[in-house]
Amino acid sequence: MPFEDELSEELRRTGETFDLTARTAVVDGALKQGRRSLRRRRSAAVAGSVLALALIGGGGAFGAGLLGGGPGGGTDVASGGPAAPASLQGGLSEEKLAAVLEELLPPGKVSEAHGEVTGDEKGPKRASASAVYDDGKGKGSVLLVVYPSPVSKAAKAAECRERLSLGLGMVDGDQGFESRLGMCFVNGTKEFWGWDAGGSTGAARATFFTSGGLVVDARAFDRVLGSVAGPGRPGPALDEKGLMRLARADVWRPLAGALAGDAGAAETDGASRAPVEPSRAAGKPTPGAEGAPRIVRKVPLTGQEVPRIVREIPRTVQDTPRTGQAG
Amino acid sequence: MRTSRAEEFKEFAAVRASHLYRSACLLTSGDVHLAEDLVQETLGRMYVHWGRTRRIDNPAAYAQTVLVRIFLTHRRRRSASERPLAELPEESRTDPDDPALRMTLLRALAELAPKDRAVVVLRYWEDRSIEETAAALQVSPAAVRTRCVRALGRLRAQLGCSIAELAAR
User: Fold this and answer.
1) Across A165-186, average pLDDT
2) Can you give the pLDDT at residue A260?
3) Which terminal residue of chain B has fewer beta carbons within 10 Å of its beta carbon, N or C?
């Protein structure tokens, strides 16, 4: 028998004498180590992308718009603000936030799921989760931010009420909400879908006010945030229903008691900003944010929570008054 | 989804851990603690890339490659301070049939340069071809051949005679 064959045989015999007795411990340790590495990489990626976007956009406004900005503003990641608490009192750790987001997303490929809790010495103030989602049409980022509802916003939210007879995510007609918003509506009509009249779509957003005083702000993009690759799909990663389902999930509600409210920061919360498309936001005022036509209509109060979806509306569409609800 | 990902990974890890551990034991010449660390790190890295791993044809072979690379990186980091030991670091479970031969073989492997040892393990334990071994080690096939010939020569010299004869003694 050639030496090589003998060696091969003997290596096999020798190798098989080693038995991994601590297999469970090794596998569990590997899982823990892998998750830690993943978290570190994602934190670095998010911090890096925020920094890059802030540099490109020339300031915090862009970064804040992109990141959703809770009561404490949206720049805490880039500015290296107060250290994030590891977990929430409500039981949702950063890891769980990411896991919950993954579970709530419709069937598809989910990657780079990441949870984050930020706050200050008083306690956690904002919880967020992000992931890259691909439903087969391409990759796009999904971002969800949860923070206590500022008192003034909660009061104004009473103007929008959910009508139970409508389908998930559907609200009766348009609701004026505040001057900085072009419009607040949920009707699923395609004509209002997009960033400009050219039909290009970049981002969509659904904000949900819970009766417990919580704002759940869900956003979907047509690209992977932090990537220079540009749009990875024809439209935002989630449609209206997907965004509303995400924002309205019951799982976020227990966070109301865990996140420290800051009513004074009412006007800086992310809900007052229109969704920002990464490449277009830089140094450019959000189209339609100021002076856009506002339609206000009182609707019978039938529910406790107020869902709304905010879109950038093509000017040609804004100019057309809408009545009733479509879709 | 996340849960299923973790479950899938755990299933993969549980199945592959033993084989990876045996490879690691051969690479480390019987240092079972280091072997466990290497396996854990390998599986940890596999978890990080688990989403992408689904697109890899053979995750098991990929894990093996990761293990060898981690081992070589580890050896490179420690090469300046590490010296060959007269005795193997720790004797793990002994083979009741032929502990002497196993020890001799492990000692002979320990005498090899880490990269030569990796070549021997990949070629004769993993049954990888020259090309596959070259790809795993990120070297040319010619370099693998050279290392293989050198390693076999040293092993033959270390063992003094054919393995079959050694086993018969």
Assistant:
1) 32
2) 61
3) C
Calpha distance A57→A36 (Å, rounded): 31
Q: In chain A, which residues have their Cβ closer than 8 Å to the Cβ of B106?
A: 14
Whether chain A has a CB inside 8 Å of the CB on B39: the answer is: yes
Q: Answer yes or no: is pLDDT of B142 > 90.
A: yes
**How high is the mean pLDDT of chain A?**
59
| Number of Cβ pairs < 8 A linking chain A and chain B | 137
The pLDDT tens digits of the residues spanning A138-156 come to: 888 898 888 876 654 444 4
DSSP string, chain B: -HHHHHHHHHHHHHHHHHHHHHHHHHHTTT-HHHHHHHHHHHHHHHHHTHHHHTTSS-HHHHHHHHHHHHHHHHHHHHTTT----SS-S---S--SS-HHHHHHHHHHHHHS-HHHHHHHIIIIIS---HHHHHHHHTS-HHHHHHHHHHHHHHHHHHH-S-HHHHHH-
Q: By mean pLDDT, which of A81-85, A247-251, B98-102 is the weakest? A: A81-85
What the block records as the tokens of B62 is 């990929």
Q: What is the pTM for the complete model shown?
A: 0.42
CB contact, 8 Å: B45 with chain A? Answer: yes
Say yes or no for a CB contact (<8 Å) between B41 and A22.
no
Q: Please check the confidence at residue B133 and state whether its pLDDT lies above 60.
A: yes
> Closest by alpha carbon to A225, among A56, A36, A35, A34?
A56
A44–B contact, CB cutoff 8 A: no
Pick from A11, A33, A113: which is nearest to B2 by CB? Answer: A113
Q: Does residue A190 carry a pLDDT above 50?
A: no
